Design the sequence.
């Protein structure tokens, strides 16, 4: 039997049910893995053995039998841009250093209500702006598959923690690929749900119209479980949908591919890394062999995604980040003379380079005289991208594309060239712009032994279908091995 | 100067911020309550904590719809909230949630009564929802922020530039205030800042089509100050034009101690608020059926009350108009009448004595020192013959000065009317004895002298004798 920290959620739940181990034993095993591996990986920014063990004892000692709870005793790492009462929330930024959350995010609250155990706060790019975890003010996180390489970003710490078996699952946020890309680079399953599926209440807003909460895990079933617990209308988030939440894990029982049509967009696949292309082709062939119909689709306007994203996201960010001004909480510069210098110095000292770059970009795009040409135009093209997907989904149930054009790259390799970095998300950005669900599943290793991810994109609120296809793929490929 | 002024006309548009009478704030569940302990009505949403999101207060929208219906506006079925971005310590999110390109209603109007007796229609350009900011408190060791008011729901009502002088502007504000108060939309308390007015003023030569450069007057907290400030500003601007000086686009404020407007800041267009649609809120959908529901449950509006006062109390259209000019006044009248039992007398006392006295003292009905029940009681005492109408005026004056009840004043000053036949006869005998000449003249046919005798008797009784009885008894004695 594997060490307790290496068990996936499904195995943990059945182990608890059969009284094979206690929550405290599992928690201790995870804390041990963290203390061994975290100094090298820097995946978790805050670990509190006291809080973890107190919660574990609470779960073990509960008078009624809680083991039927959907996430009983499941340790989960939470990206440090979620608010969890009593825990820090830095969003990877110096401007929120020492900030303690006064309340708990709805998604985390739902996990806790289902019996989950918060194991720590995970490293991330500053305010979720980045694709490598290198913009974190608390140092980069490293990829457990190769310590010289990045885990992806922005939810790099959440991915690395699960890949390194510090915990079976974690939460991230995905604004342009921040769950799927690190899942791909770390060999995990990661889901960006439909916009409005999971509450955003209590996650540090980056770009409100694009941000979504989602899970990381080793298996499709585990992610399905986390998703079904978190999803659904939240009166505190006006953008959540009232659509009923299906029992995702239950639906995985039927994962046949005979009725499924999958679309591939040949134009997207030009100029891909050859190992990535090969793995992608293999997966498509295997799915076809298992009964899926494969067709070609055209998504002509998705080529504008990068431009559209880098107008809309920074615009919203420039406004969302205005609250970090040194007045009410967070970093306050010491040497200010008046409110003007208080703002300038606090924000000047508190924000990192990439965040400043995007605030400047967004402020410019929203300025009088530029709004129509930039922000407004971008929102119009965004609608066209949505239309592209709508017409593709008339012909297929899901669109397949590699999650990332390359596997994990080296630290520093792209950090001096924003455009090169931004291109890491070229296949994930359109999904956020269109508000669609996307899932990244492992589909092989490249010649260097680094994981490759396959992305499946579905119709809005058809996570069930995506999960079924992902499950079928997992049955063919097997669950990805550990680094 | 007055001749020169005749050549010009002013163009005035007003922006009113009215706080909505909701239990909770615009985008969170915190209490909307004035005067609570510093920073007690706050939560993650209205203090702008990371991750907190707004949700729309349905009650605030309902009150907004009431205002739209009462002001004959066209309601937009799908309106958009927008962020107005600027930095200020009392603005915790760094932006105010407001409405910009698509406000929830537009194109309304309100009828205003002028002192000439004419009516004038003033256009309402738009009304939109927004949240209030907190309050900076300047302490000796630095500036502190109280966020109790942050997120309190407001509507901003923007008029067309339809007003031409301070009187029209003042009457527009009173009419608007009255509609909001009648509708229970806003409590209208100007001292607490729950009904705030900004005025845009420019002048131009009569007959010119082009507007002059406008000056904005900010945050004036009484109707009278608005009128005074506008008058001052019109004169100031005309003087400048006459001296060929350029009027600069400015924001000014009213200094009520010096009775002048003062410069706050030059030209506001330096601000770029970078408005964009609020991505945390879905468009606000207002259905026809929702509007119908609100319409049905709408409180009585000023025109309806005016009509009711004519049928229910038998008042003239004019009196009913005067007495329903504000909700406070209408309520005051209703209460006074309930006590006095005399609709007409109450109408006269409220419309003439009370309003005249308030006007002379520069006060609004909300500030009256005379309680409605006390005025009703005074009128009742006249009805019962306890005091004369003349004495009542003296008592009323005392009530207005001191706020005392009529009963106490009458008792203290011994003003109860003398209706005792013996006492009046004694006084008459005294007067007859003292004026033998007039007595013989009267008996000789000069009946007009009756008034003289009555007057002397009233004087003798210090005005407290019942005039009717004096009249009858004098006639009897001299016959």
Sequence:
């Amino acid at each position: 039997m594997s060490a307790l920290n290496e068990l996936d959620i499904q195995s943990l739940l059945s182990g608890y049910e059969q009284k094979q181990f206690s929550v405290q034993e599992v928690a201790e095993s995870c804390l041990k893995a963290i203390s061994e591996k975290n100094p090298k990986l820097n995946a978790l920014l805050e670990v509190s053995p006291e809080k973890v063990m107190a919660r574990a004892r609470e779960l073990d000692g509960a008078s009624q039998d809680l083991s039927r709870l959907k996430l009983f005793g499941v340790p989960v790492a939470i990206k440090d841009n979620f608010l969890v009462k009593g825990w820090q929330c830095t969003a990877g930024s110096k401007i929120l250093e020492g900030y303690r959350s006064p309340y708990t995010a709805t998604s985390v609250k739902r996990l806790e209500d289902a019996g989950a155990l918060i194991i720590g706060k995970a490293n991330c790019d500053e305010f979720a702006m980045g694709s490598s975890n290198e913009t974190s003010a608390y140092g980069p996180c490293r990829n457990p598959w190769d310590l010289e390489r990045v885990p992806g970003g922005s939810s790099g710490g959440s991915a690395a923690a699960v890949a390194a078996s510090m915990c079976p699952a974690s939460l991230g946020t995905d604004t342009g690929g921040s769950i799927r890309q690190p899942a791909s680079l770390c060999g995990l399953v990661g889901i960006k749900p439909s916009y409005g599926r999971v509450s955003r209440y209590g996650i540090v807003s980056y770009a409100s119209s694009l941000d979504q909460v989602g899970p990381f895990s080793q298996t499709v079933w585990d992610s399905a479980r986390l998703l079904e617990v978190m999803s659904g209308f939240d009166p505190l988030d006006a953008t959540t949908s009232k659509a009923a939440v299906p029992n995702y894990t239950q639906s995985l029982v039927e994962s046949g591919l005979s009725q499924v049509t999958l679309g591939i967009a040949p134009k997207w696949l030009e100029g891909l890394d050859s190992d990535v292309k090969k793995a992608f082709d293999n997966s498509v062939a295997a799915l076809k062999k298992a009964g899926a119909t494969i067709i070609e689709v055209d998504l002509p306007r998705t080529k504008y995604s990068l431009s559209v994203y880098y107008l809309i996201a920074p615009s919203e960010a420039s406004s969302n980040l205005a609250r970090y001004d040194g007045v009410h909480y967070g970093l306050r510069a010491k040497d200010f003379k008046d409110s003007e210098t208080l703002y300038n110095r606090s924000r000047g000292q508190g924000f990192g380079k990439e965040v400043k770059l995007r605030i400047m970009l967004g402020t410019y795009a929203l300025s009088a005289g530029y709004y129509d040409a930039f922000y407004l135009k971008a929102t119009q093209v965004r609608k066209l991208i949505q239309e592209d997907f709508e017409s593709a989904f008339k012909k297929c149930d899901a669109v397949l594309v590699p999650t990332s054009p390359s596997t994990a790259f080296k630290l520093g390799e792209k950090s001096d060239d924003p455009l090169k970095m931004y291109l890491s998300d070229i296949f994930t950005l359109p999904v956020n712009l269109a508000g669609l669900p996307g899932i990244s599943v492992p589909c092989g290793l490249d010649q260097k032994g680094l994981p490759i991810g396959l992305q499946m994109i579905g119709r809005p609120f058809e996570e069930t279908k995506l999960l079924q296809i992902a499950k079928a793929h997992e049955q063919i490929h097997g669950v990805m091995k550990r680094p | 100067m007055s001749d020169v002024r005749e050549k010009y006309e002013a163009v005035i548009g007003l922006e009113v911020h009215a706080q909505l009478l909701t239990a909770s704030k615009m985008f969170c569940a915190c209490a909307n309550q004035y005067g609570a302990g510093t920073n007690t009505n706050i939560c993650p949403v209205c203090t702008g904590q990371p991750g907190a999101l707004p949700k729309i207060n349905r009650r605030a929208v309902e009150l907004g719809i009431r205002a739209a219906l009462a002001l004959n506006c066209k309601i937009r079925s799908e309106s958009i909230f927008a962020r107005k971005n600027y930095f200020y310590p009392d603005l915790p999110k760094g932006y105010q949630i407001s409405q910009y390109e698509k406000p929830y209603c537009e194109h309304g109007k309100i009828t205003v009564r002028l002192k000439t007796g004419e009516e004038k229609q003033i256009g309402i350009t738009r009304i939109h929802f927004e949240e209030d900011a907190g309050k900076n408190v300047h302490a000796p060791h630095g500036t502190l922020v109280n966020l109790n008011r942050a997120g309190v729901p407001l509507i901003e009502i923007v008029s067309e530039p339809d007003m031409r002088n301070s009187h029209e502007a003042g009457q527009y504000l009173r009419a608007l205030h009255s509609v909001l108060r009648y509708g229970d939309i806003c409590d209208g308390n100007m001292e607490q800042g729950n009904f705030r007015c900004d005025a845009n003023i420019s002048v131009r030569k009569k007959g010119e089509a082009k507007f002059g450069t406008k000056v904005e007057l900010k945050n004036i907290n009484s109707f009278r100050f608005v009128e005074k400030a506008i008058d001052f500003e019109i004169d100031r601007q005309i003087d400048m034009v006459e001296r060929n000086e350029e009027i600069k686009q400015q924001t000014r404020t009213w200094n009520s101690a010096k009775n002048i407007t003062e410069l706050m800041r030059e030209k506001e267009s330096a601000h770029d608020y970078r408005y964009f649609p609020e991505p945390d809120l879905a468009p606000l959908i207002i259905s026809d059926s929702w509007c119908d529901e609100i319409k049905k449950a709408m409180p009585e509006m000023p025109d309806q009350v005016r009509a009711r006062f004519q049928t229910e109390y038998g008042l003239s259209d004019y009196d009913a108009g005067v007495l329903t000019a504000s909700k406070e006044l209408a309520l005051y009248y209703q209460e006074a009448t309930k006590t006095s039992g005399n609709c007409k007398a109450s109408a006269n006392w409220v419309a003439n004595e009370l309003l005249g006295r308030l006007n002379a003292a520069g006060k609004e009905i909300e500030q009256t020192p005379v309680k409605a029940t006390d005025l009703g009681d005074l009128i009742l005492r006249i009805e019962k013959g306890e005091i004369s109408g003349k004495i009542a005026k003296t008592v009323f004056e005392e009530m207005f000065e001191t706020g005392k009840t009529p009963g106490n004043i009458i008792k203290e000053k011994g003003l109860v009317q003398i209706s005792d036949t013996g006492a009046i006869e004694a006084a008459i005998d005294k007067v007859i004895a003292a004026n033998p000449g007039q007595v013989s003249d009267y008996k000789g046919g000069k009946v007009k002298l009756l008034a003289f005798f009555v007057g002397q008797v009233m004087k003798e009784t210090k005005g407290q004798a019942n005039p009717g009885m004096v009249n009858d008894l004098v006639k009897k004695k001299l016959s």
In short: The CA atoms of residues 366 and 375 of chain A lie 6 Å apart.
